[in-house]
Design brief:
The complex is a heterotrimer.
Chain A (H helix, E strand, L loop, with lengths): L5 H7 L1 E11 L36 E2 H13 L3 E2 L6 E4 L9 E4 L6 E10 L2 E14 L3 E5 L11 E5 L6 E7 L9 H19 L11 E10 L9 E6 L2 H20 L7 E6 L4 E7 L9 E2 L10 H9 L5 H12 L3 H9 L3 H9 L4 H9 L1 H9 L10 H12 L5 H12 L5 H8 L7 H14 L1 H8 L6 H11 L6 H11 L8
Parallel strand pairs in A: 12-13
Antiparallel strand pairs in A: 1-10, 1-11, 3-6, 4-5, 4-15, 6-7, 7-10, 8-9, 11-12, 13-14
Chain B lengths: L5 H10 L6 H18 L24 E2 L9 H6 L4 E2 L2 E5 L7
Antiparallel strand pairs in B: 2-3
Chain C lengths: L8 H9 L5 H19 L2 E4 L1 H12 L11 E5 L26 H8 L3 E6 L33 H8 L5 E5 L6 H7 L2 E4 L20 E5 L2 H11 L17 H5 L8 E5 L9 H16 L3 E5 L7 H16 L20 H12 L2 H14 L5 H21 L5 E5 L15 H5 L6 H6 L3 E9 L2 E8 L5 H14 L13
Helix pairs in contact in C: 2-3, 10-12, 10-13
Classes of the chains: A alpha+beta, B alpha+beta, C alpha/beta.
């Protein structure tokens, strides 16, 4: 073992974390050209001279990308620049058509903000250093090696459809004082940020499709000492992984520090499959990016009056909506925090809007669906089931068509891609059986199979009927209406049905 | 007066992705020294200290375009100039550097 | 019958319009001329015979009403033209056929101009002699043993050897004006942002500017009007009306115009013959009624070092895209070498010595620790040069100076001395750093070789260049080369 357990590590060291989040904006066209931004298009069908970096091609800024970035900055309480420029970040990489990335360097659009997140009942203020706008890179497919990894590949194939999609980078300042919960704080921050972005409608924020991506910085120091050397873990592409990445890095660094080794300033790559990171490039021979102002683009000078109108038109922050949820729907603080942390706030709200009670929606999204998501290793909100489908299952339960157990089976059917809830009920044959004729045989079999219990019931120990009802339920694979089964058992054994 | 060593030129060549051989590095080191010696005279311009830099010749701001989709290039034209292509993608030799 | 290749562009257009000749005849005459003389001049890298004749046939069918319909033109090989090879004078782009037209190319086509082919140039426009072309040098029609200027030596030589009446050049530090000066032709660098850079293979983005080249001032103005104007594909393109350049080119009077002679652009380093022709040109301007004063622009002496930091820096970034992945040359892809090695080998073999020199210089000037002292300081000096211009405009309407310090020098004379080559640009660079328009007009001969008069004007006052040019041309007609080598 090369790690110190998380709690033990944090009892000994103080963590400093930092997060860089990349968000692909949901604009119709790319950052600097009119190519479409559809996800999943055939390779190299959404490219033109500009985003391919052909000789002579020139960029022109997408005005909606500027507006979206400013709205993000405003939602994060940032100062908006009155004048700023794009810069070229120069380095060679085959995914990057010009071998420089058009980005922002010392003049970002938005600076100095914050985002409040709720962790274990406490509000933690995450300071935001900057929000800036840049362009995404293309994607490489590595051929001939194991599992698509770059190592061992014989060659690579490049698709530039993603190259030039507007990308907003949101960088926190170093976050201190997270005590024993740096991983939880990191996850809560990304979750909250995702809700803010979704509320703004600027991105579809789908981590599994890469439209929201995180780099996680972690360092440890002993109390009272200077901050330690930090590592930067890239490729952290789910909420769960944000937490796991911080956790594993805390455990790894604590082990090294305890052993008297030093932490190398490096880039690490997170692997979703193992939940571990591996060492990448050492930053000690850091690349010299040779930033300089992008001469092909003129400065951006947002009109303060326009910025003010954007600010006035911002939607309610998720924290405000959460308060509303808590009050109007009668949910507890713990419940709403749990929902935020699980990233299901929006789907719970949508489920309520589709006709369920708040408690019913909460129970599904924090209960069976949360377990299913955990098993599948995805975020609950990304499960292949819609709030409307969940609401339909709830309605079927309330109508007596499904029991709680059957409802779970229906949901599992929907998750397995078997269609709408009603279709799953039919195809799996899951409706409750309350027809007395259909249950009579099962009741008789149950009595015959357990004469002791039957005798106890006859002698007045009505509680013993439970065992017989259980047998009926089992024989009907849970489809029997339990109250009907109980009444039939008692009647058959000559006990007056006292349903109270 | 700048003095550029061969090692410095070799570092710059790596940054610029140029595979230069030893004799090229030697020649360049000598020439860069001379050129930098000549351009270094801009350090003499002491009245530049408090002057804002000019990055653009024309003082334009806020040149943008509406967020509208225009047709992309047909893929056969996209790949026509490629040194190598496969499955609709640009084919490149194995990538060493996993750093970007 | 008249030799169609000796006509000016406006004469040619008029003859086509009144059907004295057909556009196809004019085009064929120039294609024949190219076939006859270009073996010795080497102005063209590619001749688009089929495309040129097809366009000429459209003109003859009446498709284009414009003032230059049917006039042949030589296009510098730094501007893209769909389906036609575009190399920028480099091996790294050998065989590349762009899938799109530069805005300049598209406007020429839409105006009915017949593009004969692509002209030779210093690789990526880095040079003052065309000797840095990967495809061999162009020869000056005035003396084949001498340089035709650069980087646009192919365009200027094509004009001076009557292979085309019009040409397009690009000017980053003098690449339109210096070739015009040493070939006795007219070359205009418009206001930066006046002509779209979309499709211009970038050397230094904040300095590059395409412009017209011709044998007469009016022809240059007619061409200027066709290619200029706002382009939404170029963020640095100015959204303003094109200055009235054609009207100015017909005006021929400068009475009362205030002309400033730049004190710092003369004296040491300027050949006596060049200085003498320049002094005579100033006298002619006085005779034409201009008031002439001497103007000091103290920071112009720092223009050359500032330029040789800014331009290579931007170039080092602009040329990073030539990496063997999407287009152009690939070297060393043997199944063993990594992509990084293939990129580095391709760039080392695909770029010539001058390009590599400037990439290394620019990489150095931008690198951390040196940025402030080099690139940052050069941009401040750029501000001071702009202020020198602004101060000059308080007392004069235009500035004049020699276009370049020498006449055409022998091929090979400066190849081993980069700094001596760079000094060719000493008088032309200030306008690039400032962004205002500047032109070179023929100003007579020194030892039988042409000298240029440079005129510089305020931003968006390109018309003033043509006003001075038209009056000066009327007073001192351009010299005509003997082209004695043709019969040798």
């Amino acid at each position: 073992m090369t790690a110190v357990p998380y709690d033990e590590a944090l009892a000994e060291f103080e963590p400093v974390i930092g997060l860089e989040t990349h968000v692909e904006l949901g604009t119709a066209s790319k950052m600097f050209c009119g190519c479409a931004t559809e996800f999943g298009a055939e390779p190299n069908t959404q490219v033109c001279p500009v985003c391919l970096g052909l000789p002579g091609a020139l960029p022109v800024v997408n005005e909606t990308a500027i507006e979206s970035t400013i709205r993000i900055g405003l939602a994060l309480h940032c100062d908006i620049a009155t004048w700023c420029r794009f810069a070229r970040k120069n380095y060679f990489y085959p995914d990057m058509p010009k071998n420089f990335q058009t980005s922002q360097y010392d003049e970002p659009l938005c600076t100095d903000g914050y985002l409040d997140v709720l962790v274990a009942g406490e509000t933690v203020r995450i300071p935001i250093e900057r929000v800036h706008l840049e362009e995404d890179t293309g994607k490489s497919l590595h051929v001939g090696g194991a599992t698509g990894r770059i190592h061992g590949a014989s060659h690579s194939l490049v698709d530039y459809n993603r190259a030039g999609i507007p990308l907003v980078e949101i960088v926190t300042k170093p976050v201190t004082g997270t005590g024993t919960m740096p991983a939880e704080v990191a996850k809560a921050y990304v979750t909250e940020l995702r809700d803010v972005l979704r509320g703004l409608g600027v991105s579809d924020v789908k981590m599994e499709q890469g439209s929201l991506r995180c780099d996680v910085n972690v360092s440890l120091n002993r109390p009272g000492q200077e901050w330690g050397t930090r590592s930067e873990t890239k490729n952290v592409n789910s909420l769960r992984s944000v937490e796991r990445a911080v956790r594993s890095e805390v455990e790894r660094q604590a082990f090294r520090l305890r052993a008297g080794e030093r932490i190398v300033q490096e880039t690490r790559h997170f692997h979703e499959d193992t939940g571990m990171s591996t060492s990448g490039r050492s930053k000690e021979e850091a690349t010299d990016y040779r930033y300089f102002p992008e001469p092909d683009l003129v400065p951006i000078a947002p009109d303060p009056v326009w910025v003010a109108t954007l600010k006035d038109a911002l939607p309610e922050a998720p924290s405000v909506r959460r308060l509303m949820l808590t009050k109007e729907l009668g949910l507890s603080d713990n419940d709403s925090e749990a929902m935020v942390n699980a990233g299901v706030l929006d789907v719970v709200l949508a489920t309520v809007e589709a006709g369920t009670s708040a408690t019913e929606a909460r129970n599904w999204w924090l209960g069976h669906l949360a377990q299913s998501a955990n098993t599948a290793g995805v975020d609950a909100a990304d499960l292949p089931i819609t709030p409307a489908q969940v609401a339909r299952v709830v309605a079927l339960v309330n109508a007596g068509t499904l029991t709680a157990g059957l409802a779970r089976q229906v949901v599992d059917g929907v998750l397995a891609g078997e269609g709408e809830p009603d279709a799953v009920v039919v195809s799996r044959g899951l409706a409750v059986v309350s027809d007395e004729g259909a249950l009579a045989a099962a009741v008789d079999e149950a009595i015959a199979a357990d004469p002791d219990a039957a005798e106890k019931v006859r002698s007045g120990k009505v509680a013993a009927a439970g065992a017989l009802v259980g047998k009926v339920m089992k024989a009907t694979r849970g489809q029997a209406d339990a109250s009907v089964a109980r009444r039939l058992v008692l009647e058959r054994l000559g006990v007056t049905a006292d349903l109270s | 007066m700048p003095e550029i060593t061969r090692e410095e030129v070799a570092h710059l060549a790596r940054l610029a992705r140029l595979a230069l051989d030893d004799s090229e590095l030697d020649v360049l080191a000598g020439q860069l020294d001379v050129i930098l010696g000549a351009v270094a005279q801009i350090a003499e311009v002491t009245d530049a200290a408090d002057v804002p830099p000019t990055s653009h010749a024309v003082p334009l701001v806020n040149v943008t375009r509406p967020d509208a989709v225009v047709p992309s290039l047909p893929r056969e034209k996209v790949l026509a100039g490629a040194p190598a292509a496969e499955d609709g993608r640009f084919r490149v030799p194995r990538i060493l550097d996993d750093s970007a | 019958m008249t030799d169609l290749t000796r006509l000016t562009a406006s004469e040619t257009a008029a003859a086509i319009k009144d059907r004295t000749v057909s556009a196809v005849e004019v085009t064929q005459a120039h294609l024949d001329r190219i076939a006859t003389v270009d073996g010795q001049v080497h102005a063209f890298l590619h001749v688009d015979t089929e495309g040129a004749l097809a366009q000429a046939r459209k003109v003859d069918a009446g498709e284009f009403p414009g003032p230059l319909a049917g006039v042949p033109l030589a296009l510098k090989d730094v501007l893209t033209m769909e389906g036609v090879p575009t190399t920028a004078g480099s091996k790294i782009l050998e065989g590349w056929r762009p899938p799109y037209d530069a805005t300049v190319t598209a406007r020429l086509k839409a105006a009915g101009v017949v593009i004969l082919g692509k002209t030779n140039m210093d690789e990526f426009a880095m040079g003052s002699s065309t000797e840095h072309s990967a495809y061999g040098p162009t020869h000056n029609p005035w003396d084949l043993t001498r340089i035709p200027g650069g980087s646009g030596g192919g365009s200027s030589a094509a004009l001076a050897s009557y292979q085309a009446p019009l040409a397009i050049g690009t000017d980053t530090g003098g690449s339109i004006r210096q070739p015009a000066a040493v070939t006795g032709t007219v070359g205009v660098k418009p206001t930066y942002g006046g002509v779209s850079r979309y499709g211009l293979v970038a050397f230094s983005s904040s300095l590059d500017q395409a412009g017209p080249c011709a044998r007469t001032v009016l022809d240059a103005a007619l061409l200027h009007e066709v290619i200029a104007g706002h382009d939404p594909h170029d963020s640095t393109s100015i959204d303003a009306p094109v200055p009235p350049v054609v009207e100015a080119a017909r005006s021929r009077h400068i009475r009362g115009l205030r002309v400033g002679v730049v004190k710092e652009l003369s004296g040491e380093g300027y050949e006596p013959g060049v200085q003498a022709r320049f002094d005579e040109a100033v006298e002619i301007l006085k005779d034409l009624g201009a008031t002439v004063t001497e103007v000091s622009c103290p920071h112009f002496v720092y223009a050359l070092p500032a330029y040789y930091l800014i331009a290579p820096s931007e170039a080092s970034s602009n040329l990073a895209r030539f990496d063997s992945v999407r287009y152009g040359l690939r070297v060393g892809d043997d199944g063993v070498n990594s992509l990084e090695e293939v990129m580095a080998l391709t760039r080392a073999q695909g770029f010539g010595a001058e390009v590599k020199r400037r990439i290394i210089l620019g990489t150095y000037a931008l690198s951390s620790g040196y940025y402030d002292a080099y690139y940052g300081q050069a941009q401040k000096v750029r501000t001071l040069i702009t202020r020198d211009f602004a101060r000059a405009w308080e007392s004069v309407d235009v500035l004049v100076a020699p276009t370049c310090p020498t006449v055409a020098f022998p091929l090979g004379a400066k190849l081993q001395d980069p700094l001596a080559m760079y000094r060719q640009d000493v008088a032309s660079i200030p306008s690039n750093l400032y962004g205002g328009p500047a032109a070179s007009f023929p100003a007579g001969l020194s030892d039988g070789l042409p000298v240029g008069l440079q005129v510089m004007a305020p931003t968006l006052r390109d018309d003033l260049l043509y006003r001075v040019g038209s009056a000066f041309e009327a007073a001192l007609p351009a010299p005509v080369p003997s082209l004695a080598w043709e019969n040798a």
